[in-house]
């Protein structure tokens, strides 16, 4: 199992949680971004810089993931592709996307996109808060406990 991060929009505090988990549990962690990233020195953590462009990082992740890999992303269409390939996706607020719930999240996302396209101002997501960080950390721990027998 490997953890992939759609890193361009991933909050720094979430990356820090992931860095600690990768080191503590010896899990490969790859951050994919179209900009240069600073990462801690660790044999388990690497960064991949892809060219700029629409969904280039997403395409890289989809091309390289394997079944049961975990992808950290707030991008629901990317999460849907991950699940379709047999992986899991976890958003920075701690919501795990699986084959059981991804269609629902994708339809809600598409509905909201249509509303915005018709001129309805739906606002954006709230700022990531302490509760969101804790929920993410808890969900990550639960996922890793379930998918890594030695955790």
Describe the structure.
The chain is of the alpha/beta class. Helix content is 44%, strand content 15%. The chain is built from five helices and six strands. It has helices at 12-25, 56-64, 76-84, 102-117, 130-147, and strands at 3-6, 29-33, 45-49, 70-72, 88-90, 96-97. Helix 1 links the parallel strand 1 and strand 2. The longest helix has 18 residues, at 130-147.
Give the topology:
Blueprint: E1 3-6, H1 12-25, E2 29-33, E3 45-49, H2 56-64, E4 70-72, H3 76-84, E5 88-90, E6 96-97, H4 102-117, H5 130-147
Parallel strand pairs: 1-2, 1-4, 2-3, 4-5
Antiparallel strand pairs: 5-6
Task: Estimate the helix proportion, in percent.
Answer: 40-55%
Average of per-residue pLDDT values: 89
β-sheet strand percentage: 5-15%
Spatially, the strands of the biggest sheet line up as 3-2-1-4-5-6
How is the biggest beta sheet arranged? 6 strands, mixed
Query: Structural class of the secondary structure composition?
Result: alpha/beta
| Tally of helical runs | 5
In short:
With 151 residues, the chain is an alpha/beta fold.
Can you tag this structure with a few keywords?
151 residues, alpha/beta, six-stranded mixed beta sheet, 5 helices, 15% strand, globular
């Amino acid at each position: 199992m490997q953890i992939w991060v759609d890193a361009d929009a991933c909050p720094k505090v979430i990356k820090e949680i992931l860095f600690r988990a990768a080191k503590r549990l010896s899990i490969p962690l790859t951050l994919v971004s179209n900009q240069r990233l600073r990462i801690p020195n660790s044999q388990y953590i690497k960064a991949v810089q892809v060219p700029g462009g629409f969904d280039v990082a997403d395409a890289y992740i989809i091309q390289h993931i394997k079944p049961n890999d975990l992808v950290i992303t707030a991008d629901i269409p990317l999460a849907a592709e991950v699940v379709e390939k047999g992986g899991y996706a976890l958003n920075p607020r701690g919501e795990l996307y699986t084959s059981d719930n991804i269609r629902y999240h994708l339809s809600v996302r598409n509905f909201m996109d249509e509303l915005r396209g018709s001129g309805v101002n739906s606002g954006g997501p709230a700022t990531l808060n302490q509760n969101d960080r804790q929920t993410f950390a808890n969900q990550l721990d639960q996922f890793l406990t379930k998918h890594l027998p030695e955790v």
